[in-house]
Amino acid sequence: MVDFRPFRTLRPVPEEAAEIASLPYDVMDSEEARAEVARRPLSFLRVEKAEVDLPPDTDPRDPLVYATARANLDGYVADGHMVQDASPTYSVYRQVMDGRSQVGIVGVASVDEYLSDVIRKHELTRADKEEDRIRHLDACDAHPSPVFLTHRDAPLEDVVRRVTEEQPLHDFTSDDGVRHTLWRVATSADVTAIRAAFDGLANLYVADGHHRTASAARVGLLRRQQGWTGEEEFNHFMAVAFPADQLTILPYNRVVADLAGLSEEEFLTRIEQDFEVLPVAGDPTPTTSHEFGMYLAGTWYRLVAREGAFDPSDPVASLDVSVLQDTLLAPVLGIADPRRDQRIDFVGGIRGLAELEERVDGGRAAVAFALYPTAMEELLAVADAGMIMPPKSTWFEPKLRSGLFVHLFR
Prior knowledge:
The chain is an alpha+beta fold.
């Protein structure tokens, strides 16, 4: 049974939704955010990355940044850019990218179900990143941006069809070519049907946004220490829940700064112990699991993991990110802890293979690896087993936009 509730949504007024909607805080740096706000002054990055309204040398974790985020959020309301619904309801959020559609339900999920693993995870979080979002949520007195959840089959098709036949609140295409359409669920019967559908699920899964989820739970626990009844808004966190069969995971590629003192010839000889290594003349994009593209000294190679290089029965060890880490990055290049080692960097698949070539050709990396994307069923299997994927195992596109819905604690 899953507790996924409606809430009184704070929304942009329809005519300003496209100007307010922004990419989430963690896919751009402060400089990129400043450029975006200069171009679109109403961008919700003024809440998500409030340092954009402070001097350029401001530390993004300065207490003034969090206070500015709260002031800016309140300003959207005071200036009439955003309005809160009169009563709790859900929203239906459709994104279309490259002809592919995914349709999710916007609601609030339970902190207690996150803590009890009804809402399942597949990644570890970093304490410093959690602390940043804890301070941000606490200062804003709100969940400004949603967590990306997924679930297996739920009987939502009929209600989604009814809602999406109505006039949407917002319908626009963002600069990256993604079409965003949002409907408010208008009838109490449809609200009841949605809640009942989630009530019939055994689990939800965090697809993207582990730090947001962990931080939301921590804020809920911290506020409970100040006294609570169980019905306060901070006991639930905002999320968009999508059916797993609608989602696409892109690869999360790797680049490494050096060859750990090996010559190119020594490096190639070492990796041939666990991989077939074949130069590629055509497209080097991996076409199946346990196959990798490698860019070294201006040449693409195809690496194919040899039999016995990994345990195919282990849901984590058999992931492509694990095979690469356990048989090459750690033993050959000395990347023992990819979460902390400064010699490795991660490149989302949305940037394409040209980004990998540019990093190596430009001298910022010695070698790059293109991966085959993790499958949704692999993600769900790892989460169901209570196991953890290696860092940067999945890259979801399209990204949810911030600013189209906000969950206030007050």
